[in-house]
Design brief:
alpha+beta, tt1808, chain A, 5-stranded mixed beta sheet, 3-stranded antiparallel beta sheet, 3 helices, 12 strands, elongated
């Protein structure tokens, strides 16, 4: 049975991915894949005692997250962080290095963001996470990269529409456990604040 497989991952009440080894009894947990309620089973006596794990209710056919679900877990986790920050009027400071001039820059990811949408259809592109300003215009596109990079056509579209592209690259599912830290250091931002840099497209973060 699929639900007999040991599942080391769950989402907590804040939508953050938690490993069973760091989970606590008495908290609410759900499956990142099917969103059903999960029970935390601590290691002890019995055939499944070798490590902590989460367990679906009897009758569930969900096998829990796999390596192929990294993209979904990261997308949902980061969008939840952003949505919560917008609702609480909080900043999300980010730091990145321009690949052209090698300079380090910092900005507030949510400087003008008033809303967040997942998989928003822009016609030519459908960003994993879109940040919208007060007029509903997409100003930042966040792409979660796991194995597949955004196409050249997609990157060109963002540039033509003056949409800042922010990339977060994931290699393992364990990285989804540290989204609060990872969101502050994107792997790339198609924006440079240095006047003589060929990548410079704006002197302010949208």
């Amino acid at each position: 049975m699929a639900n007999e497989l040991l599942n080391p991952w769950a989402l907590d009440s804040n939508g953050m991915l938690v490993n069973a080894e760091k989970a606590e009894k008495g908290q609410q947990y759900s499956c990142p894949k099917c969103h059903e309620h999960l029970s935390l089973c601590k290691k002890g006596k019995g055939p499944n005692a070798r490590r902590n794990h989460f367990k679906h209710k009897p009758g569930s056919h969900c096998s829990g997250p796999s390596e192929s679900d990294i993209h979904i877990l990261a997308k949902e986790g980061i969008s939840n962080i952003i949505r919560s920050a917008i609702e609480k009027h909080q900043d999300i400071p980010i730091t990145w290095t321009c690949p052209e001039c090698g300079m380090d820059f910092s900005a507030n990811l949510l400087k003008k963001a008033k809303a967040v949408e997942v998989e928003k259809n822009l016609g030519t592109s459908r960003p994993d996470i879109a940040l919208l300003d007060e007029n509903g215009k997409v100003i930042v596109a966040i792409e979660i990269v796991y194995k597949h990079e955004p196409t050249d056509e997609t990157s060109k579209f963002y540039n033509e529409q003056n949409i800042v592209l922010v990339r977060y690259v994931f290699h393992t599912i364990e990285e989804c456990s540290f989204l609060y830290a990872k969101i502050k250091f994107p792997d790339s931002v198609n924006l440079c604040f240095r006047h003589n840099c060929p990548s410079c497209k704006s002197m302010s973060f949208p």
